Structure formats: C-alpha cells, structure tokens
Amino acid sequence: MSNSTNPAAISIKNLTKYYKTLKAVDDISFEIAEGDFFGFLGPNGAGKTSTISAITGLANFQSGDVRVFGYDVVKDYRVTRRLIGLAPQDYNFDPFLSSEQILYYEAGYFGLRPKPARQRAEELLEMFDLSDKTKVSYRRLSGGQKRRLMIARALIHQPKILILDEPTAGIDVELRHELWKFLAELNQLGTTIFLTTHYIEEAERLCNKIGVIHEGKLVSFGGRAELIQNMRSDRIEVRIKEKLHAVPDRLKLLHAELANGGQLLSFREDRSRLNEVLHEIFNGGLTVEAIDVKKTTLEDVFIALTHKRS
Amino acid sequence: MPPVVSSFLYIFIFGLSLGRHIDQVEGMSYMKFLIPGLIMMYTIEGSYINTSSSLYISRWHNSIQEILVTPLSYLEMVTAILIGGLMRGVVVSSCVYLVSLIFVKTTILYPLQFFYMLIMVSAIFSTIGIIAGLFAEEWEHLSIVSTFVITPLIFLGGVFHSVSMMPPALRFITLLNPIYYMVDGLRYTVLGVHSSPLWVSYLMVFVVFAALYSFAVYLFKIGYKLRV
Fold first, then answer.
1. Number of structural domains, chain B?
2. Which of A62, A299, B71, B181 could disulfide-pair with A200, CB 3.0 to 4.6 Å?
3. Mutation test of the interface with chain B: which of A17, A58, A86, choosing the one with the most B Cβ atoms within 10 A?
4. Does the residue B227 lie in any domain?
5. Does the complex come out with an ipTM higher than 0.95?
C-alpha cells in the first residue's frame, strides 16, 4: 500500500463504470506500486479494457477515484497522461501516416521539440526493428510490426507507467518471447507495467502482482505467489487399484475428488499434507498404485476463481 | 485544386457571361460584385469540410485516441483542429482571389478588416465542422449539414446578389441569415460597399465564434462521442 510521501503508481478506489445500463466495472479497488509488473486477468468482457480506459482518459466513469502517482486522472489529466504510455488492444493509428510520422507526431503531442522528436522516433524504430519501415504506411505493416509500432508509440515520451492491453494477441511465438524479454528488461529499469492478457503463461512468467476481474468485479488481487498459495497451492493425485463409486467419508475432509473412472483420487491439499492423505487412504483399506504431486498453476487459480463466480 | 476550378467556372459563367446582361450592382460591374461573395463561399465550405471530415475520420478509425491520451488540454485539442480548418479556408480563399484576378483586377481596400472577417468566418465554420464531426454518426450526416444548412444560407446570403435586388419579403428573411452579414462585411473590406451596418458584421462574427468555440471545447471536455 502507498503512503502520503510515496503514492501508488496507480490507485483505484471504488471504480464503477456503466455502458448505459450495463455495469462493466463494479466497484473495484486496488493499488499498484511503482516498479510493479501487474497482470490484469479476466475473460472477454470482464472489464479489463474499461478499467484501462478509465485510467488513461479514454472512458468516463460514473463513480470512484482513480489516481496516478497521487494525481487525479480527471482533474489533473494533463499530468497523469504524461506519466502513462498506452498500447491499446486495437490498432488506432492515423491511417494516412507512415510509421515514422506516427511516432514523430505523437512525440510532438507530448511536447517534444522537432529535433528530439525525430531522434526519439528513429531510436524507437530501430529498437523495435522497424528501421526499414519508416516511410511505410502502417496499413502495409504485418500484424507483428503493427503491434511493435504500437508499443514504440506508447514509449515515445518515456512514461513511468506502461499500460499494455493484450500486447501479444495475434503475434507469433518468437515475437511473443522477444516482447516478454523486452518488457521484463523495461520493468527492471524501473518502468511500472500494467498488462492485460489472455495468456496465463504470460502473467505467470512476467508479473509480480496479479488481479483477476470477472463480470466487472475484482475477484482476486495480490502477489502472484500469494494468489496461488491462497488457492491451496498443490494438487495430490493418488491412483488406486480399487474402483470407487463415491469419495469415502474420511477422505471428504481432505477435499478429495474422484476421477478417471473411480480409480484416481485428487486432493486439493498442500504437499506437506501428503503423509496425512496416504495415512487416510491406507486406513480406508485402499491400495495405492501411483502418487503424483502437482503444483497449482495460475491457470488453475484463474479457472477456479472465474468458474466459482459464474 | 477543386475550388480553383469551380471558382473559375463560377466567375466565367456568372460574371463574364450572365454578368454582361446586368448593368451594375451597388455601382460596380456584376463580376466585381461577385468576387468577395465567392471568396466567402469557398472559405466557408473549405473550413467546414476540413474539420468535419478530419474529426469524423479520426473518430471512425479511433485515431482520435492518439490525441485523447496526450497531455494536451481540451482547449488545445479543439484549437489544433480548428487551425487546420483555418489554414484550408485561408489557402482556398487566396486561390479564389488569385483566380479572380484573371478576369478583373480587384484591389482589397481594407486589408486588415478583410483578414479579420476572413479569419473569423473561417474559424466559425471550422468550429461548426468540429461540432458536426462530433455529432455525426454516419458520413452522410456531414453532408446533410452542408447541403441543407450551409449551402442554402450561402446562396441566400447575398453571394450572387445584392439584398436591394430582392423583393421585400425575401429581403427580411435575408436579414435573419448570419451568412449575409459575413458576405456583406467582407464585400465592404474589398469593394467599400455594404448594405447593413458594418459593426453588426464585425461584432456578430466575434460573438458567434466565441459561443461555438466554447461549446466545442465543452464537448471535448465531457468527451461527447469521444470517450465511451
């Protein structure tokens, strides 16, 4: 949590956003500290983009308080917009401009003088391997090149916070890994990153803090490890010789589930309780054929959280 | 280029051909009388088309978001779009004036007042274009404003005729048309003749612009059809 001398990079309190009668964001609150790599997960239409739009000024919201480094995004919009770089989900370039012009003009909007603006544009085109596309209209770029240009544009004014809405959607595996490497380095250099994604692996690999939104409500928020821990971190799977029709009463207390035609007992328990699990199985007169302890992935957590709510 | 060609045709057909059959208007040849009206007409059209189409296209392509996420103030955003329309209006009107020199030498009598009227009128219709560009849901809506509002007001606003040439009933209607005062004011700055008090023209363009500009900035501030 932030304090008065060191405000959170992004602070959202009781944000509610309607589209006519549809409540897209329902009274959510959370904070992201400076330097965090925050992953915002949720199914389609959960409210991720609406939340981002409220932070960046692309959407009005009905109630709540949204601040960037302590500045109100509505009252102090000129300050907050300077602190944020946004790479939205859909391409929103001026269709009549070349790659170079897109970056050059955007630099101008952020107050860079012509010479530094041109230098910064060239630097970013090179950094994102688009140097040979400077005079090319963005419409002639490939999907991956457009995505890179979008991130380059978001970085034109060297923002303290980079917001990426589904940055790796529709790009190939190689480019995705390159982008992950780049974002991790950027974060290490001090840029706070706010990322929405459908790829659980992406959040698991990059983010130190994760929020899950479902039907407009924030269903989970915290550190990645903490989030998984809260969901009982492991799954103990025991294959038995006998074929059961129901979970024996003594095993129900250990959150057992039956699978694989009655021959697989699955326990949502931490691996430290393995002895206890086996003890109860043996006491129940069952014969163990194989044991497997699986670590819960973020995907398990995500599915559990969103399904539980549905 | 299109305004150059069409203004050439207007002057050629109305001024040179038909104008021969009109003795004099306000004490001068019809062709000379026509020039300030044509300048005003093309300024109005050019300014409106520039801003309305620019804003509508950028809303359509979502590229307006490129500007909305920047630290520019809403006043700066509106002013920037308006300057685009203003530039187009001034360039187009200059071209029309240069074309007119092919047919008749017209010296601008009061250059300062001429630029004041030209810039204010261009700013007014650039702002109307911004407002139309925000309200429009379809491309056709922009041409509806142009066809059903701006063009009739231009044609009834004394571009091609003097108010003294009209029957009394139509004359009264003309006096309610704001474009009439714009054309009349500009005609004075070029030719030194006018039909209504000049201060009305000068003041009206200022007041109308201030009101429209404030409204456009307000629409940007509340994010009307810009923010979801």
1. 1
2. A299
3. A58
4. no
5. no
